[in-house]
Structure formats: C-alpha cells, structure tokens
C-alpha cells in the first residue's frame, strides 16, 4: 500500500517533545508513523538499539557544524545506523554516500579502505554536504533533505517544472521518484517516534553501548590482529571500531594511521607496540596481476610459498591468473594457514558451544562476549526478533564444526544452510552450487562488494527445500 498522496491539515508535533528541526505531522507523516510502529516495528526496534551507539556522537558533530542536532536521525532513514550498509545504487555506509559524492567530501576509497564507512568522517562529511544543500536551497531544510536523496540537480529541475519551492507541492507531481517523495515524511516520522519511543510502545529495547574509544597512531601498516592482541580484546572489537578498513591491516604506505581502540587500552597498547619490530607489524602486500605474472614468479620475487598465495586468495585455478586480478601476498616470515582463519571478520574465537543466560545479559552483550553477531545467535537458537531471553535459558554460542549445518524450516519450503568456506571457494561458485545469487549471499551475510572470502568463514544461505 502506498502512502497517501494528499497531505491533510498539518499540525505541530506533540508539544511535550522538543525538536530543533522543523517538524509537521500530516497524512504522509502519519502513514510512516503507523508503518514504523506496525509492520516495520522489528526493524525500527533494531535501529533504535543501534542508535544508542552512534547517535550521541553524530548529534555532537552536527552541532559542531552548525546543523540541527535532530537532523542526525537522517542516518536512521538512510541505513538504520549500519556502518556496513550497501545499497543497490552502490551507496555505502551509515550515510549512504555514492562514490563520487564521497570523494567530493574527502572520503577516501581504495582497495584498502572506504571512509564512507567511517562513522566519524562520514558523519562529518554528511553534515557538510547537508549544510551546502541548505545553502543552495536558500535555507529551506525540507528541500535540502529531499535533495540529499534525489540530488540537487534533480530537485532544482522539479522546482522549475512545478514553479514551487514547497516540498509538499513538489510531491504532487510525477517527476520526483516515490523514494524522494517519501524521504522527508520518513525522517519526520522517525523523529516523532524515536524521540518518544516509550509512548509508541518501544519499552523492551536492548540499547547498544555508546561508543567509547581512544585513538592511537601506527607509523606503518599494522595487522589488526596484532592491535587486538596488544589491547587484550577480541579482533572483532577493533574491526567494529574501524569499519572503514576493508582488509585486516592498516593501509600500507600511510604513516601515522589513526586507529580506534577500546577505551582504557591506549597505554597498554603503546607499551607493547613500542617493542614490536617494524618487520613484524604488517604481513601482507597488495599486488595487481600483470602480463607474464605466475604464482611461481611471484613466490620467488617476494620469497614466499605458492600454496600460501593460493590459500589466502581462494585461487581455484593456479594456472589461469587473470591480468588485473588483485592478490594479497603473505609476507610474514613463517606464514602458515592458521592466521587466515584468525583474520576473518566473523571469526569465532571460542570452542565453547553453549552459554547459560544470566541476569542482566542481553543478546548484544552475549554476542560481544563470544565474538559473534546477534543475528548468528538468533539463527542458531531459532529466536525471532520479538523473543526475549531470560536468566537460566541455555543458548548456543558457536556453530557446529564441519562444512555445512542445515536448519530446516517448519514449512519445508526452504532450508537455512550454514556453509563453511573451503580453499578455492568464491561467492559465484557457492551461489552456483546452491542455485542462489551472489547478491543474495552478500545480503544474507552483510558482505560488501569487496569482501574477500577466507577458508573457515561461515556463510548463511537460504536454499530450496
């Protein structure tokens, strides 16, 4: 069902709540209030829980840039505050920057990192972009917000076509896409509901912990596993604090790269890092295959073993290297297969299979303790988004060993498969084997287009029964 096409009488929002962004409540806005509190209640609950981690920082940055603090809620409309969000239009990160706009606002993108995922730098860029749009549209926040979605050129053409600068008037015609017409109403609905969540029945939330971190600088490329070890924390904690890093180490050739680490770990890290020889900080090199390259040639050139190159890059046919292919070369002395599994994003660092819920536990706190995701816990324990865990309840906190774990749905129509990646696997090959699309696999597992599979990774697949 589409939202109403007529606005109805606009009214001020609830007088008990204050906003520093102009808020009206009309038929279109009420449609999305009903949507977020009804059909999309589960998703909205997750967004609210995640907002507790990022929103305080985002509101502060917006205030520093001279913008309404409440405008930071736009990240909820864009991505649900998901730093790894990736759209069909190739927009990336919590603020869903496309590549060109990201570069326009100094967000670096290369093989090693994508600053569109950096929750601080991307938020700063989004604030400056919105400020520029606000200026372009003569201080009209509604037009600025709409142009963030449609692009300023598209919105200017709509203004000329309809001879109006009133957002609601522009939505009556067919020129603007439905996504743009609904964009501002979604933001207004988000503001109204999120700022008075209890009033709308969101009383059983498990808010994530607010961001707490310190920043250290590493003079040369450094493995994130080493950083995590020196901080005495899980690899995933360091990875989550630095989502812009697409690989498992800081970018080579970048001196004094700033890395976020959990609060209270800076002194310990710096003391241990100072004793680490430079040769042991970074273990990998990026190489783009050129004409005449062979694995044997590369192995001799860099003093490494062919089977290590094959294992780390999931090479299916060692005799058929394609020109332009990006390879990661393991340069660590004594490199073995074991670090490959340790460096994957979702590596489960415990062999413990179950856990008894204690008072005060939440899925988020349990996921952090065992280095897994809340989504994995829900899948392994068949928990719906509305299920509440209780003290004494026993949860599976680690997937079973082996290549494939099957969980058959009650209706028998589909099977949920947990597939363990093997050397040589690719997303395309796995998709072909199970008759699913690579885009589906990426969506089910929150993978970016640049994700590198590693032996031992576990992928969730939904296949026909």
Layout of helices and strands:
Elements: E1 11-12, E2 24-25, H1 27-37, H2 41-64, H3 74-79, H4 99-104, H5 121-136, H6 141-150, H7 152-162, H8 167-170, H9 178-194, E3 213-218, H10 224-231, H11 235-241, E4 257-262, H12 266-274, E5 284-288, H13 295-302, H14 306-313, E6 326-330, H15 338-342, E7 354-356, H16 363-370, H17 374-380, E8 394-396, E9 404-408, E10 414-420, H18 427-434, H19 438-444, E11 458-464
Antiparallel strand pairs: 1-2, 3-4, 5-6, 7-8, 9-10, 10-11
Structure explained in plain terms:
This protein has 5 domains: about 190 residues, Orthogonal Bundle (Lysozyme), CATH 1.10.530; about 70 residues, no CATH class; about 50 residues, LysM domain (Membrane-bound Lytic Murein Transglycosylase D, Chain A), CATH 3.10.350; about 50 residues, Roll (Membrane-bound Lytic Murein Transglycosylase D, Chain A); about 60 residues, LysM domain (Membrane-bound Lytic Murein Transglycosylase D, Chain A, Roll). It is built from 19 helices and 11 strands. With about 475 residues, the chain is α+β, with helices and mostly antiparallel strands. It is globular, with a radius of gyration of 24 Å. Strands 9-10-11 form a 3-stranded antiparallel β-sheet. Strands 1-2 form a two-stranded antiparallel ribbon. Helix 5 crosses helix 6.
Protein traits:
single chain; Lysozyme; globular; two-stranded antiparallel sheet; alpha+beta; three-stranded antiparallel sheet; 39% helix; 465 residues; Membrane-bound Lytic Murein Transglycosylase D, Chain A; 5 domains; 19 helices
